[in-house]
């Protein structure tokens, strides 16, 4: 490790299910991290891991070389960036914002434009891999923005993920993330339907999922979610509420560019129905519960 003093100082805004382990991975890599989030216990966790807890966004970002944001959706990204207490008014010119939230591509494009007027650089860098990927630092990171800013961010992103790709101009990372969420939701839905079919047929589910995962039907989704299905354990790694938000992003973005998503639209409605039934706080593997209800089970 080179002299830690040479590493850029990082402000981290948003220490949730993803943000906490990711910020800790930067601390392990030797980066100085000052964090702000709304939950006091998360600030204490950051301090315990060797970071610095700030009392406000302004305090967290004022001396930072790089500002990383990881919040739930577009309204929160706008709330933390704009206004007198926000990032753009309090960060220093030349700072680089890496927004790792999953939001609409347009929100990322607008943020980059508004930040540029303050001399602040931005890349959108949403991630895939869920809580496990965040903890293990094996996230897939899809980036939108300028090549030079991507190059500057790369060493930091390499402490957080494994597959890191510049996908195009501002907003492109969000577009690829939206496609990711489409594929994941449809994949979980197909797995859920298979699970109910297999169980109703009296097959040994553990054996069936093992052999399916070894062939063309195998997937990262099935590997990561197999135990959720087997144990009906829906403790959130990624909440239905957030996947509902993401399905809204992909259906809206697809309409804007004239792309038809027939299966995606159906799964978006299934996600919405699960949320309406009170399951929004569960992991997205709980799509299984919707299939069970449709198949006559009381869940």
TrEMBL record:
Stated name of the protein: 2-hydroxy-3-oxopropionate reductase
Domain 3-hydroxyisobutyrate dehydrogenase-like NAD-binding: 171-290
InterPro entries: 6-PGluconate_DH-like_C_sf, 6PGD_dom2, 6PGDH_NADP-bd, HIBADH-like_NADP-bd, HIBADH-related, NAD(P)-bd_dom_sf, Tartro_sem_red
Pfam families with a match to the protein in the record: NAD_binding_11, NAD_binding_2
UniProt similarity note: Belongs to the HIBADH-related family.
Swiss-Prot/TrEMBL keywords: NAD, Oxidoreductase
Top-level division of the source organism's lineage: Bacteria
SUPFAM superfamilies referenced in this protein's UniProt entry, alphabetically: 6-phosphogluconate dehydrogenase C-terminal domain-like (SSF48179), NAD(P)-binding Rossmann-fold domains (SSF51735)
Alphabetized PANTHER family for the sequence: 3-HYDROXYISOBUTYRATE DEHYDROGENASE-LIKE 1, MITOCHONDRIAL-RELATED
6-phosphogluconate dehydrogenase NADP-binding domain mapped to chain residues: 9-168
């Amino acid at each position: 490790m080179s002299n830690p003093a040479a590493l850029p100082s990082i402000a981290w805004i948003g220490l949730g299910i993803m943000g906490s382990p990711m910020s800790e991975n930067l601390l392990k890599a030797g980066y100085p991290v000052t964090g702000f989030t709304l939950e006091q216990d998360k600030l204490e966790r950051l301090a315990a891991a060797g970071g610095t807890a700030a009392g406000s966004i302004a305090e967290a970002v004022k001396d930072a070389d790089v500002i990383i944001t990881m919040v739930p959706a577009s309204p929160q990204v706008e709330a933390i960036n704009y206004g007198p207490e926000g990032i753009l008014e309090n960060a220093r010119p030349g700072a680089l914002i890496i927004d790792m939230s999953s939001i609409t591509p347009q929100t990322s494009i607008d943020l980059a434009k508004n930040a540029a007027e303050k001399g602040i650089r931005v890349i959108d860098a949403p991630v895939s891999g869920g809580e496990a990927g965040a903890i293990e630092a094996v996230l897939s990171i899809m980036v939108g923005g300028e090549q030079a800013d991507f190059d500057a961010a790369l060493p930091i992103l390499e402490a957080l993920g494994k597959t890191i790709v510049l996908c195009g101009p501002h907003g492109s990372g969000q577009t690829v993330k939206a496609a990711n969420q489409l594929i994941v939701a449809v994949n979980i839905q197909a797995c859920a339907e298979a699970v109910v079919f297999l169980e109703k047929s009296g097959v040994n589910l553990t054996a069936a999922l093992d052999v399916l995962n070894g062939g063309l039907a195998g997937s990262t989704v099935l590997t990561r979610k197999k135990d959720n299905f087997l144990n009906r354990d829906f403790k959130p790694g990624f909440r239905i509420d957030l996947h509902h938000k993401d399905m809204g992003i992909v259906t809206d973005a697809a309409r804007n560019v004239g792309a038809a998503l027939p299966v995606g639209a159906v799964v978006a409605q299934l996600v919405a129905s699960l949320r309406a039934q009170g399951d929004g706080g569960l992991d997205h593997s709980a799509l299984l519960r919707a299939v069970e209800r449709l198949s006559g089970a009381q869940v």
